[in-house]
Structures are given as structure tokens and as C-alpha cells.
Amino acid sequence: MKTKKTYILYFFLVPFLWNCSNDNESFFSDPELTSLPIPDFNYSTSCEPAPGSKKYEVGPNKAFENLIDVPFENLQPGDVVAIYAREEPYYERILLTQSGLEDLPITICGVPDAEGNLPTLDGTNARVRPTRIKNVVASLGVVVISKSTDDRYGTWPKHIEIKNLRIVGAHQYLSDDSQRFYDMVSGELVPYSEGSAGIRIQMGEDIKIANNIIEYNGNGIFAVTNGEMEMTRNIMLYDNIIKNNGARGKDRYHNIYIEVDGLTSVGNQFGPIREGALGGNYKSRSAGDRIMYNRFVGPAARQMDLVESQNGYGFINTLPSFRTTYVIGNVIEGHVQGAASILHYGGDGDNGNPSDDLRQGTVYCYNNTFVLKGNKSNSWRKMFCDLNTCNEKLYAFNNIFYYENSGGAADSEISLFRYNGSVSHFSNNVISQSVLAWYKTGDNQNPCGPMDFDMITSMQIPDVEFALNTTDARKQYHPLYESEAIDNGMAIPDFLPPVDKQFKHPNGIQDRTVNGAGIDIGAFEFE
Length: 527
What we know:
Layout (H helix, E strand, L loop, with lengths): L30 H4 L20 E4 L21 E5 L7 E5 L9 E6 L8 E3 L4 E2 L6 H4 L2 E5 L12 E6 L2 E3 L11 E3 L6 E3 L5 E5 L2 E7 L2 E3 L3 E5 L8 E7 L2 E3 L12 E3 L2 E6 L2 E2 L11 E3 L2 E6 L2 E3 L4 E5 L17 E5 L2 E3 L7 E5 L16 E5 L2 E5 L7 E7 L5 E5 L2 E5 L8 E5 L4 E6 L2 E3 L2 E4 L15 H5 L1 E2 L1 H4 L34 E3 L5 E3 L16
């Protein structure tokens, strides 16, 4: 193995800058607002139940040939439903209302075949086992998690794992009512709604969704909170491939669309969106977003869309964790079509007026590799970060901001920021030379207060000095030997999570160890 090149470590330390409002000045000294707990990223791929618990085997020559024969309504803590891969999909849906325990989750688990193919649950003309759950909710996904109508108000299912499955078919992609399922109550074939999901969580807590392929649905995963008594909390997305979801010509359906208290996304591939759809890769209205070590692939309307509380307004937006977001160690690849902004933080649309439902907090953004693509023949301007108001703050270091002209036309107008937003810290980033600091008609000034724009130009390097691997899909955007990113990162502050993992193609994570004088800038360590 070659030894890394060593460069002089450079710092452009920026003091906390003046903001439009002084209401949040105490934010930076309040440890409850600057630190989020990080769950254990580990999970088991096993489909074996806990000792003393039951295993329901579904598939050819198993105890249950069909999913609708499994008594899902009777599952107990530690039980496992093992679904064996077969050539034909399971044209069936699953409704879950039961709870496991923290150390004894209820597990819905796919068992791959000898070639590694996952079993497929397909919502096309799918049947479902009648369950005491509201029919309007039951109709909204291939896998639906919600409370039973027998459960008291203010309770919901807890401690459930869904893993090793391919989940498809809950959509109305062409808006012609051609995609249908068998209604739980009437038994008749009825059309899906456009917003149906591969996995729908109406209410639930401690739900782990791992190592699945979720595609060709209206929303890949949809989860909602309607208030403190209709809660969805602590959703964990690990090592999934979530792509090709959406509705043709519609912008309200996404690869994920989630509003919960606590959302952790680690090691996933998000995107692209389904051909002809206008939705985004990752739309979250959640408190406590932890977006770590994922890969985002365009096209998509937005790669990360972190916006205001909606159904959960009055609860979600009152949580301290709603004001703190982690974006760490991701590789985010835009596309010549779509993704005019890669990281949007604040609220829907161009709302530039502070309000208590907007994020009005800090996005901690470090060791990411951002890639914008395009030119003026397909997109006039694009930006890496779009923060709605002066009360949305960016704390950024150790990031690569790389712009790639797809050729044949002049550069798009590329800026690091859009209209608004405050900068709390900005150092040790490397930026393409064609990138402007701030997009604003007529000048290049931050409307949220004074800012030294020379620091942006000081971090700009020629494209050749990025030296990123673009030929090997398994190591795409990893730094090459001559990269300026090598060794030039700053140490991670103690109050933030360490960077000790990195994305592993095509989905998953692997250990990341500093290999040289300092941590490398970007999502990957040189090897």
C-alpha cells in the first residue's frame, strides 16, 4: 500500500457569525441542542428466533405456503416470520399491530436463495390477512405498521425489525387506477393511491428496517406522526437500497418521506427517483435526523430535503432535537437533470421568513463528498446548500464541494449557498474553482450578516487536484494518491460524533481508520 501524500494542514476558522435573530444565540452552548445520541449501527441478518419464541416459515415446502396464512395478529416478542425466496413474488401484503421487546423484537425476515436473491413482496393484485386495523390505513402499503383498533388510544406497536426483503408494487405510477390490490374488507380489487408506500408506518416505535430493496412504490418508505398521542418514534434505516419510487409527473412522492421523533439513516443507497417522477430522494420533517454514511444518486428533485413539521406540528417542532441535524460521511451525487440544490434545510418552498415550524437550528455537515453535475444547456444554476432563513445555520468542515461540467456548454451558475442562511463554522473544505459563495442577484453578499467571502476562494482548488476515482464503481469518489483532500481535514470536535465508518458499495458501511497525518476531507479515507 502506498503511503499517503502529506500536505500542510490549513484551517479557515470562522467565528460564530451574526444572525438575523438573537433568539438562538444560546444554541451553541446548550449541550442538549448540540448533541444527539447515536444508536448502535449493528443488526443481525439472522432469521432465527429467540430461545422459546416461535418461527413461522413461509415458502415452498414450508409450514405456511402463503403469508395470509400466518397469524400476524398473534405474534409475540422474539417471534420471527421467515419468508423464503422463490422464483415467483409473494403477491401479498403484511399488516403489523403487535409489539416486541427491546431485546426480543418481532422480526419479519427474508431468507435469500442460493444466488443471494431476496424474496419479493409485490403489491400487484395482492391479498392481505384481515386484521383489526383501520381499512384506510391498511390500504396504504405492502407492509403497514399501525395500532390495532383494539388497542387503547396513545399506544402503538414497538420493537419491530423488517429485513432482507424486496418490496415493490404499492403505487399508482401512471395515475390510471391500473395498479390494484384486494381490499381487506370488501375483498374486491381496488386501486392504490399515488402515495402508497413499500413500507407505511402510521404509528410505531423502535422500528428497524435493514438490508431491503424497496422500489417501484409511490413512496419507498412513508412514516408519519400526528401528535404526541399518535406517535412514530425512533426509525432506523440501515443498509437498504431505496430507489425508483414516485409517481410520473408528480412531486409529492419520494424515495423516503418521513416525519418522526428520531430518524437514523446509515449505509443506505437512496436513488435515483423513478423515471418521469418529480419527487426527491430523502424528504424528512423529523426531529433528530442522523444522516450518516449513505450514498445519494440522482436524478431527484432534491437529494436531501429537511423541512418543517407538518402533521406533527405542535409536537415535533417543539422537540430540542428538531433543531439539530447531522449530515456526516455521505457521498451525494447530483445529476445533469434535477437536484438544483443538494442539501435543503428549513422549510418547503422559498419561505424566507422565520417561523417556529421551520428548522431554525443547525445542520452539522462534515466529511461529506458533494458532487454537482450539469451546465447551462440543462440547468442555469445550481447550489450545494439551500437554507431558508437566517435562523438556519450551517456548521461545515472536511467536505468536498465538487462541480463537474458535463460538457458541451458553459458552466451553470454554481454557488455554495442560495439566498439565506447563517454560517456558524466553515473550515477545511475543498471547493471547485467555478463555485461562487452566495447566489444573490446583483451582488455576492450574505443577506444574514457579514461574512468573509475570501475564505471561500481560499479553499478553492483546480479540478485536477480533487483527484477522485470516477472509474471504479466500488470506489467511486474515493480520493486517489494525488488528491488535495488527503490528510487535510480537521479533528472532529468532541461534542460531535466521530467519523469512524464510511459507505461501502453498493449498500452498507465499513470501518474508516485515519491513515496518515490527519483525517482526509470527504466521505472516504485514502487506502
